[in-house]
Amino acid sequence: MAAERILVVDDEEAIREIVSSMLTTAGYACKQAGSGMEALAVLTSEEEFELMLSDLMMADLDGIGLLERTKEKYPDMPVVMVTAVHDISVALRAIRDGAYDYLLKPFEREQLLNTVSRALEHRRLKVENRTYQTNLESLVEARTNQLQAAMADLERSYDITLEALGDALDLKDAETEGHSKRVTTFTIAIAKAMGLPQEHIPMIARGAFLHDIGKMAIPDAILRKPGKLTPEEIATMREHCYKGYQIVKKIPFLADACDIIYSHQERFDGTGYPRGLKGDEIPLGARIFSVADTLDAIMSDRPYRSAQSLQAARAEIKRCAGTQFDPEVVAAFLEMPDSVWEDLRKDIDGQVPRIAYSAGKS
């Protein structure tokens, strides 16, 4: 291990030689400077010092001035002031200004070595603590990145599972095959057009995708009935909102999305179901979904009618602003160019993007 380097600064050569001799005998590597200015020149060389011993009273640049010039540039190098008895008050000021300690002339060899040893140990601890802190911060950053990657993988796994549920629902309710995927994509597009925070969009997308999951609990005889439903059957069908909510609320990952599932059949004027919510009482995600759902319904083939045009869908949604739909959502929807919906439908027909990836697209 290399000897620790000490810079001895004093304008009296005899004192420099004595101090350097004591320190060299103790195993330290010493270099001398006869003034404060000379010490600065030595310090600015490529050589690094673990400690500086400086006389307090020197002509040219005194110990206080030298300390002020070096403490910011060499923060790890402790400075020990050497002074006479009558200059103790100045030495104490130096300590307040950043010096590690002071030695009173004349001093014994043991006093010198003890002070030097303490100062160097202080430096070692200071450097080790900073290294530890840096390593700790790097470790925390690495662990945080690993956690974020694991959470992203977990979210992707959840979304793949959700898509499997949506596919199962499509098999049960063939009339709306692909509807969940289309309406999710449309909901994401409107949410982005409204400038919603990016972190909110995946939750809204999941709620939109699972909006009809409660239909899994509706008897097939009602769900697949080709003719008109009776009032009792309509009441049973309307239970799918609450049943979907009950299914999803048990999954912590979907805690926020379940409110969209529960509210997706509410109307802005309060005439919807199951709770008759009105205006802002309806979660924003559900209000956005409502427009996207109607857009897809009008533009899709149904057993009782053929698909209608985008212009027809726009006109109907505009007509129902303030009654069925939130006017602000409708306004955002109407400002979106026709090409957006044409491109989205082509993308969906070609390859359906996963929920999380759809939400993350710009």
Supply database-style keywords.
362 residues; alpha/beta; Rossmann fold; Hypothetical protein af1432; 2 domains; 16 helices; 57% helix; rod-shaped; HD/PDEase_dom; Cyclic_di-GMP/3'3'-cGAMP_PDE; hydrolase activity; hydrolase; transcription regulation
Describe this structure in words.
- It is built from 16 helices and five strands.
- Helix 1 links the parallel strand 1 (5-9) and strand 2.
- By secondary structure, it is an alpha/beta fold.
- The chain is rod-shaped.
- It has helices spanning 13-25, 36-43, 63-70, 88-96, 109-172, 179-193, 201-209, 220-223, 231-238, 240-248, 257-263, 284-298, 310-319, 327-335, 338-350, 355-360, and strands at residues 5-9, 29-33, 51-55, 79-83, 101-104.
- The longest helix has 64 residues, at 109-172.
- A five-stranded parallel β-sheet has the order 2-1-3-4-5, sandwiched between helices.
- The chain folds into two domains: 5-133, Rossmann fold; 173-350, Hypothetical protein af1432 (Orthogonal Bundle).
Q: What's the arrangement of secondary structure elements?
A:
Blueprint lengths: L4 E5 L3 H13 L3 E5 L2 H8 L7 E5 L7 H8 L8 E5 L4 H9 L4 E4 L4 H64 L6 H15 L7 H9 L10 H4 L7 H8 L1 H9 L8 H7 L20 H15 L11 H10 L7 H9 L2 H13 L4 H6 L2
Parallel strand pairs: 1-2, 1-3, 3-4, 4-5
Helix pairs in contact: 2-3, 6-7, 6-12, 6-15, 7-11, 10-11, 11-12, 12-13
Task: Detail the poorly predicted runs.
Answer: none
Overall residue-averaged pLDDT value: 86
- Total DSSP helices: 16
DSSP, total strands: 5
The structural class is: alpha/beta
Described by the principal axes of the CA atoms, the overall outline is rod-shaped
Strand order of the largest sheet: 2-1-3-4-5
CATH superfamily of the largest domain: Hypothetical protein af1432
Looking at the structure, the CATH topology of the largest domain is Hypothetical protein af1432
The gyration radius over C-alpha positions equals 38 Å
Domain Response regulatory: 5-120
Organism: Candidatus Sulfotelmatobacter kueseliae
Keywords: Hydrolase, Phosphoprotein, Transcription, Transcription regulation, Two-component regulatory system
Protein name: Response regulator receiver modulated metal dependent phosphohydrolase
